[in-house]
Amino acid sequence: MKKTTIMTEGTIWKKILFFAIPLIMGNLFQQLYNTVDSIIVGNYVGSKALAAVGASGAVVNLLVGFFVGASAGGGIIISQFFGAQDKEGLHKAVHTTVAISIVAGIVLTTAGILLAPVILRAMGTPAELFQDAVVYLQIFFAGIVFSAIYNMAAGILNAVGNSKRSLIYLIIAAIANIFLDLLFVVVLKMGIAGAAFATVISMFISSVLIFLFLTRTDEIYHVRIRDIRFYDKLLGRIIRVGFPTGIQNIVISVAHVFVQSAVNSFGSVVMAGYAAYLRIDGFNLLPVMSIAMAASTFTGQNIGAGKLERVKKGMFTSAAMGIVYAVASGILLMLFAPQVIGVFTSDREVVECGIYLMRFFCPFYWGIAILHILAGTMRGAGKTKEAMFIFLISLCLFRIIWIGVAMAVKHSVDLLMMVYPTSWFLGAALSILYIWKGNWNSPVSGGT
């Protein structure tokens, strides 16, 4: 167990924090993929190319969100087997999870390349940005299988408490991405296609490294290539647990596509400002998402060990950590708004637009911190359907209705952006209500 973290014993806040730190760093470097693309494209190709990358971002996030969500199913089952010290069950769960990632990646690669133009056209991507966005998206889809393998493998490692190993490989891939971006975009003048190729090659590097580690380690989560297949009972169990989270992330990303489509109607300046701030938003939420992932692993292991009271304490500890971070980061972003947005572009209009949009996000991040961390605890306990419904109602259905009504009442950026804080608070309220109204042992301990 020397390369794993046992979260069923010890000081709760230390276990969660020290497990979350590598996750934060790992998510940071994963976010760097598209952010580096945006910075280099925005500064060396132009604001329209930046807007095209932003238009593709909603679809990219949809796919990454699906894999992160789907890997949660395998991760939850694996963490519970790990907490219960069931080696045979863990072995089968690991290999079934790997098999799922390979099949899902191949299917989505094929479908994505074919459907990229259809998706972007349905989003109302402006004509002057359409071709660049198609090129970026199709190249990205060509390498999505590597993202699938990496995220599933990282989910396996996180489930057994080894959050440091995936961080190492992400750092290597992110550094490679920076150099490849500079080579393809700045030196070879390949434009937006160069940025996409840099991202795909970087994803390939991280997936190969992490898969080789899993096949060579002597830990109990060791992967044997000949054992990679669907184990019937576990396949159904992983799908039941992971599918709701994968679907949840897809549908939420679909809601983001609706938001992006509405943003597209305001022109390329607003699109570029929105794209720039979404990159910042992605970075800023990384610690919150990482704490939620740590809460999920913490809950899974303690559910497996039968320590239900420790699960409850872990949830409150995680939520407090997330709220403190969210308030502090929101204040800092508002104080340094011009400098932060200026990293992505020197276009004065785009910078001003990005700064303006920040006021709809920064003061309210604590709402989404509560939502994600409570949902992470639910997922760790196997309550993925309950978490899914809360997310679908607040971050999808509510947003789609809001956009339809608000844009019909007044074509206003203000009304459009208000959808973010209101949906966060709705989701947080529903999560609190779900846990408060039910018997504690029911909503948080039921296992899978």
Provide an overview of this structure.
α1 (12-44) runs parallel beside α6 (163-187), α2 (47-84) packs antiparallel against α3 and α3 packs parallel to α8 (232-264). Helix content is 84%, strand content 0%. The protein starts with 11 loop residues before the first helix and ends with a helix. By secondary structure, the chain is mostly helical. The protein has 18 helices and no strands.
SSE topology sketch:
Blueprint: H1 12-44, H2 47-84, H3 87-122, H4 127-142, H5 144-159, H6 163-187, H7 191-216, H8 232-264, H9 268-284, H10 286-304, H11 308-335, H12 337-342, H13 348-358, H14 365-380, H15 384-409, H16 413-417, H17 419-437, H18 441-445
Helix pairs in contact: 1-2, 1-6, 1-7, 1-9, 1-10, 1-11, 2-3, 2-4, 2-5, 2-8, 2-9, 2-10, 3-4, 3-5, 3-8, 4-7, 5-7, 6-7, 8-15, 9-13, 10-11, 10-14, 11-14, 14-15, 14-17, 15-17
Class computed from helices, strands and strand pairing: mainly alpha
Low-confidence stretches: 439-448
Question: Quick one: how many beta strands?
Answer: 0
DSSP helix fraction: over 70%
End-to-end distance, in Å? 24 Å
Name the assembly state: single chain
Q: Which radius of gyration do the C-alpha atoms yield?
A: 21 Å
Q: Mean of residue pLDDT?
A: 82
What is the succession of H and E elements?
HHHHHHHHHHHHHHHHHH
Number of DSSP helical runs: 18
The geometry reads as globular
Q: Tell me the strand percentage band.
A: under 5%
Q: Report the biggest beta sheet as strand number plus sense, adding barrel if it closes.
A: none
